[in-house]
Design goal:
The chain is mostly helical and about 625 residues long. It contains 12 helices and no strands. It has 2 domains: about 220 residues; about 280 residues, Orthogonal Bundle (Helix Hairpins). α8 runs antiparallel to α11 and α9 runs antiparallel to α10. It is elongated, with a radius of gyration of 75 Å. The two termini are about 120 Å apart.
């Protein structure tokens, strides 16, 4: 693809890539030259350091020679220390120089030669002078060594080796300096050539970008500015060759054509504007009607919700709304109607519950009062039974005494008549006491019957109270069972009393016959003894039975006291329920629901029927015919 057919982004990439390529090549060349310069600098520094080491070694060798001569001249012992220090410094510097010249064989060979010549001088001249010069006897030998030709030759060899080593080190430094200068020249040359090439490439790239991008864009900008001023006669030249400039030129041509089309359409738009104004006026009227209808709907709904929040359930949305709100009005009225019906039922049921709780409270009060009366009656009955029991015990004691009299009748016949008369009186008293006991048993039977009926009525009231009276119903059932057991015990006692009365009557007849036929007393003493024994046994049985009756009555008294306490609790609960019902009625009364039909009261009649059936059932089960209940009890 030719460069003129590239898109602008690719043209820019090519231009900047060319500039960056030149810069990269220049950087590589400079880096190469700098690397060579660094190597040259390192070599020069190493040569300078090597030269410094050699200078120090030569100085140390000179110090060795000077110290030896000074020792010969002065004989001072301090020159030994100076000589040893110079020797050590020479050896250290030579060792360091060898390490630095390890990669330079020629210099390393010169260093080795210099070290060997210095070692030879020390062996032949320096060390002997230091050893012999301290002793006056050997001092002339040391001086002779110093003045000898061998000493001079040895020193000349040392200085010749040092001069050669110095020359090589100087040549090494000079070569490193030339290499450094050449490397720096290459760096400068690479910078100049790279800068010139980068400038030329950048200039050429800028020229191409100007010719292929900036110049066409300025032409298109001028065309678009004229088109923006409304000059639709301007010509749009074809610019670019397959790039964004060509696309922009085509788009500007399209803009021009659109501007021509826009001018044509503006005339038609002016005519359409008038029609739109008329439509807008008509829509404003319709909108105003919609706003008014919406306002009416919102106002009505607000009023309805306000009446509903005030508890008025008789309010209805009577005004008709528009079609979109009419369904809401119907749904609201239906909802309020259903809510009103629900509240009517709730209010009616609340009043019925309140009436029922009032009846329960009244019945509980009456039951409490009658339970207290029954407890008092049972207490009196218990006292009377205690007296009867004492009387029967006395009767048993009398019968025992009569038996003793019969046993002695054989010896005292004259006193038998009086004893018989006493027996007749005692038997009459027993007969009268038996009649009284029979009456008391009837009273106990009636009390048991009334207690049974009371427990039945309490169970009915507990059933009417629902879950709140479930516990009371259980207690009433237990009281009823206890009353039935008391009635059965009373019937058994009554049968025993009837049997005792018959026996007493028979005893009275026998005693009377004995009084009329005293002559038969002696012949019938044994028979009378047996009869009196039976009478004593019957009296003891009567006393035992009365004791059981007394115990049963005491138990009934305790149960009645407990019933009285439970009735008090039931009365308090019924009063609390009545108060809660009143509170519920007050809360429900906050709603206005219209006229309320008074609740019916079928419960009272149903309770009376249940009580009547209970009376029939108890009457059918009893062994003896019970007395009819009083008017007050029937009313309860």
């Amino acid at each position: 693809m030719a460069s003129q057919n590239l898109v602008i982004s690719k043209k820019l990439i090519v231009a900047f890539s060319a500039v960056l390529g030149v810069v990269a090549l220049t950087s590589v060349a400079i880096e190469f030259a700098v690397h060579h310069a660094e190597d040259a600098i390192e070599t020069r520094d190493a040569s300078f350091q090597l030269a410094e080491r050699l200078d120090n070694a030569m100085a140390a060798q000179f110090d060795q020679s000077s110290d030896a001569r000074g020792f010969l001249l002065s004989g001072q012992s301090r020159y030994h220390e100076l000589y040893a220090a110079a020797v050590k410094q020479f050896d250290d510097e030579i060792a360091a120089a060898r390490n630095e010249a390890a990669d330079r064989p020629d210099i390393a060979a010169s260093i080795n030669q210099f070290a060997e010549d210095n070692a030879a001088w020390r062996h032949d001249v320096g060390d002997p002078e230091m050893q012999l010069g301290g002793d006056p006897q050997t001092a002339p030998q040391a001086i002779a060594i110093a003045k000898s030709t061998a000493s001079v030759d040895s020193m000349l060899r040392v200085r010749a080796a040092a001069a050669d080593l110095r020359a090589k080190a100087t040549a090494l430094s000079a070569g490193a300096a030339e290499a450094q200068a050449g490397a720096l020249w290459l760096v400068h040359l690479a910078q100049i050539i790279g800068g010139v090439l980068a400038l030329l490439v950048a200039a050429y790239a800028g020229y191409q970008l100007e010719r292929r991008i900036a110049f066409p864009i300025r032409i298109l900008n001028d065309c678009m500015r004229k088109l923006a001023q409304g000059r639709i006669d301007v010509g749009v030249p074809p610019l670019g060759e397959g790039d964004e400039i060509a696309e922009m030129s085509q788009r500007v041509q399209v803009f021009k054509e659109n501007a021509v089309e826009k001018a044509r359409l503006e005339t038609a738009a002016e005519a359409a504007r008038k029609a739109a104004e008329e439509d807008r006026a008509r829509q404003e009227i319709e909108t105003q009607h919609y706003i008014e209808a919406h306002h009416t709907f919102v106002t009505s709904i607000t009023e309805a919700l306000q009446r509903l929040s005030d508890g008025d359930l008789t309010f209805r949305l009577s005004n008709a709304f528009t079609s979109e709100y009419e369904k809401i009005r119907g749904n609201f009225n239906v909802s309020i109607e259903k809510l009103q019906q629900v509240m009517l039922h709730v209010n009616s049921n609340t009043r019925a519950i309140r009436s029922g709780t009032q009846e329960i409270s009244t019945a509980a009060d009456d039951l409490s009062r009658r339970t207290e009366q029954q407890a008092a009656s049972l207490e009196e009955t218990a006292a009377a039974l205690d007296e009867i029991t004492a009387t029967v015990r006395k009767t048993a004691d009398g019968a025992t005494h009569a038996r003793e009299l019969v046993a002695t009748a054989r010896s005292d016949a004259e006193k038998g008549g009086g004893v018989v008369r006493q027996a007749i009186g005692a038997m009459s008293a027993i007969e009268k006491s038996s009649q009284q006991i029979s009456q008391i048993i009837s009273v106990i039977d009636e009390i048991a019957f009334q207690t049974n009926l009371l427990a039945l009525n309490a169970g009915v009231e507990a059933a009417r109270a629902g879950d709140a009276g479930r516990g009371f119903a259980v207690v009433a059932s237990e009281v009823r069972a206890l009353a039935q057991r008391s009635a059965e015990a009373a019937k058994e006692i009554k049968g025993l009393i009837s049997a005792s009365s018959t026996q007493v009557k028979q005893g009275v007849d026998l005693v009377a016959e004995t009084g009329k036929a005293l002559e038969r007393i002696f012949t019938q003493v044994a028979e009378m003894d047996s009869i009196v024994a039976d009478i004593a046994t019957s009296a003891r049985e009567q006393a035992t039975g009365l004791q059981e009756v007394n115990t049963a009555v005491n138990q009934m008294d305790q149960v009645t006291q407990q019933n009285a306490a439970m009735v008090e609790e039931s009365t308090a609960a019924s009063h609390t329920l009545s108060q809660e019902t009143e509170e519920l009625s007050r809360l429900v009364g906050r709603f206005q629901v219209g006229e309320i039909e008074a609740p019916r009261k079928p419960q009272a009649r149903g309770a009376e029927k249940i009580a009547a059936r209970a009376l029939k059932t108890v009457g059918a089960r009893g062994g003896a015919a019970p007395k009819p209940v009083t008017d007050e009890w029937e009313e309860f």
